[in-house]
Amino acid sequence: MSVVLTFTAAAGQVCSTAAECANQGVDNFVGTPKRVWAGVAALVSLVGVVAGASAWVRSARRGGHRGTRGAVVALAAGLLGGVNGAVDLAVADGGPGSGNGVVGAAAAAVLGVVAVVLGLLVLTRSRRPEPVG
């Protein structure tokens, strides 16, 4: 219950235009649209990293799908979050603290690359034949 109330209170602080944000005095705790975009992209990339890491652990085991489903999730989430982070960095007008979501976008881009690499490693490992003996 308190999580919903906290989310509702935080969502009320999101400005819809640059003029509205300028009148509020953008600080570190106000969510501008670009900050929200970067934050969601970073969360999607983080989901990809977690899926890729768990798939990496599962791929070492024998039998079953050997983590390929997690690898596909890691690839998809990593690409989606990483590309959104890179686009947000490309369109940002200022640096950190400007309300453009630069820090979140950079985190999304880095985590997206990590998720894609983990997904590719798991897919490569799952295609190798199992050792005999």
TrEMBL record:
Keywords: Membrane, Transmembrane, Transmembrane helix. The chain crosses the membrane at residues 37-57, 69-91, 103-123. InterPro entries: DUF6223. This is Uncharacterized protein.
